[in-house]
């Protein structure tokens, strides 16, 4: 298998860099500006760290030596997908960008934004089932059809798929974890069940890739890439599971302290 | 009867399920770390795997993560309610762990041919030890659960309680 497309054209690499850089600066400015407003709570610095590391992991996939190597080596391609589709979305979700934006926007604009978030379309996309189908279903389409081969011959397809991988990963993360305002909430049980199915589908796809998908690539590379997908996916999803269950644990806290009862 | 016992006996099912979930997750975790990663006995993928096997493996693997984390959060919840019950938890843990090991050793390894315990050896002793251990765990778990239930009946003045 050879690749026509060596890597992203330099102009596009620069564009991605500019987007990421302005995102970082923008976040920092909003954070500093809203921290000056006295009635608002102090914005935690760790969220800035989440935002910066999230943008950095997404950017890595498009720019520089890593991006170039991903075109030749399936293992690095897969590592890139873990960064772009799982780690970056989780970090960015943890940085609560919508909350920051709502703090910074003037009231009428903030109202319009919350109204948009409550819109039925937003509700549809944020449903864990929709988000999981877009996320894992998209991966099945990519690896179980000729799409993966086609991607390396058409730049627009390459861009579309990569944007989709990130967007679907982000959508999936925020459909499970409500860090930013989430108007239409699903129960913990429902989210857990959908999540189990999504993680299972991810694991099954990894093993299918290992078994016999992607013919024409060096088999050892494909196998190692598939195992990376399997275990890397486990690792990132484990973090989401812990955060999900931590929220559940917090929300079901008993109303009174048991310590007080026993000592009285 | 002390108050802490009262808490514990009013959370029988939660203690049992915390144990079952954690036991299942724990055995799956041991399976992954020891037999896949450290010993390299199990294979990541075996050509003879049926598609049902692939699906079953995927579901159980995913579920085991949730079971481990969820089981531990249930324990944390029982602790903060002063209702953690060691005997019931251990009963559930042995039952859940043994149940999963038996399923893995019979249905997944043999019927769905996911992978074998070890390759290039006479597999029979491995299979026997694997599954007999599982059955012993299940029996010990059930005995512990029964004994824990009897404790709670005694503590409640001989009244039979539905578990």
> What is the terminal-to-terminal distance of chain B?
20 Å
Question: What is the subunit arrangement here?
Answer: heterodimer
Average pLDDT of chain B, rounded to a whole number, is 87
Which pair of chains forms the biggest interface, and how many residues does each contribute?
A-B, 33 and 25 residues
Helix amount of chain B, in percent? over 70%
Order of helices and strands of chain A: HHHHHHHHHHHHH
**Biggest sheet descriptor of chain B:** none
Number of strands of chain A: 0
Q: Helical stretch count of chain B?
A: 5
Element pattern of chain B in H and E: HHHHH
Organism (chain B): Bhargavaea cecembensis
Transmembrane segments (chain B): 16-39, 59-76, 88-103, 123-145
Pfam families (chain B): DUF2243
Protein name (chain B): DUF2243 domain-containing protein
What does this protein structure show overall?
The complex is a heterodimer of chains A (264) and B (163). Chain A has 264 residues and is an all-alpha fold. Chain A has one domain (10-105, 113-252). Chain A is built from 13 helices and no strands. In chain A, α1 (10-36) packs antiparallel against α2 and α8 runs parallel beside α11. The radius of gyration of chain A is 21 Å and the shape is globular. By secondary structure, chain B is mainly alpha-helical. Chain B has one domain. Chain B has 5 helices and no strands. Chain B has helices at 3-9, 12-38, 51-80, 86-111, 123-155. In chain B, α2 crosses α3. Chain B is elongated. Classes of the chains: A mainly alpha (264), B mainly alpha (163). Chain B: InterPro entries: DUF2243_membrane. Chain B: It comes from Bhargavaea cecembensis. Chain B: Pfam families: DUF2243. Chain B: The chain crosses the membrane at residues 16-39, 59-76, 88-103, 123-145.
């Amino acid at each position: 298998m050879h690749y026509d497309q060596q890597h992203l054209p330099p102009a596009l690499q620069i564009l991605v860099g500019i987007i990421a850089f302005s995102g970082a600066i923008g976040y920092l400015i909003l954070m500093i500006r809203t921290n000056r407003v006295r009635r608002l709570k102090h914005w935690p610095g760790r969220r800035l760290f989440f935002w910066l590391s999230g943008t950095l992991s997404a950017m890595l996939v498009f720019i520089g030596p890593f991006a170039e190597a991903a075109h030749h080596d399936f293992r690095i391609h897969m590592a890139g997908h873990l960064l772009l589709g799982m780690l970056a979305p989780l970090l960015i979700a943890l940085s609560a960008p919508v909350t920051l934006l709502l703090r910074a926007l003037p009231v009428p604009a903030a109202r319009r934004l919350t109204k948009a978030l409550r819109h039925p379309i937003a509700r549809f996309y944020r449903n864990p089932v929709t988000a999981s189908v877009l996320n894992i279903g998209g991966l099945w389409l990519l690896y179980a059809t000729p799409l993966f081969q086609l991607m390396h011959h058409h730049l627009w397809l390459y861009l579309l798929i990569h944007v989709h991988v990130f967007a679907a990963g982000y959508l999936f993360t925020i459909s499970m974890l409500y860090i930013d305002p989430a108007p239409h909430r699903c129960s913990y049980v429902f989210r857990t069940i959908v999540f189990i199915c999504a993680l299972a589908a991810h694991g099954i796809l990894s093993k299918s890739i290992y078994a016999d998908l992607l013919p024409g690539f060096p088999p050892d590379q494909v196998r190692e890439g598939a195992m990376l997908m399997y275990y890397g996916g486990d690792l990132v999803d484990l973090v989401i599971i812990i955060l999900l269950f931590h929220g559940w644990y917090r929300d079901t806290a008993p109303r009174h302290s048991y310590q007080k009862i026993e000592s009285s | 009867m002390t108050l802490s016992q009262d808490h514990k006996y009013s959370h029988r099912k939660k203690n049992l399920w915390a144990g079952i979930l954690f036991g299942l997750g724990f055995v799956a975790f041991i399976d992954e770390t020891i037999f896949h990663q450290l010993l390299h006995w199990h294979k990541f993928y075996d050509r003879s795997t049926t598609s049902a096997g692939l699906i079953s493996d995927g579901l159980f693997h995913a579920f085991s993560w949730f079971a481990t984390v969820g089981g531990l959060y249930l324990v944390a919840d029982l602790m903060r309610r002063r209702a953690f019950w060691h005997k019931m938890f251990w009963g559930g843990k042995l039952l859940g762990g043994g149940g999963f090991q038996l399923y893995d050793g019979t249905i997944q390894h043999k019927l769905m041919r996911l992978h074998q315990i070890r390759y290039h050896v006479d597999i029979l002793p491995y299979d026997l030890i694997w599954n007999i251990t599982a059955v012993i765990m299940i029996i010990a778990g059930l005995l512990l659960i029964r004994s824990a239930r009897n404790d709670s009946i005694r503590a409640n003045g001989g009244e039979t309680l539905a578990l």
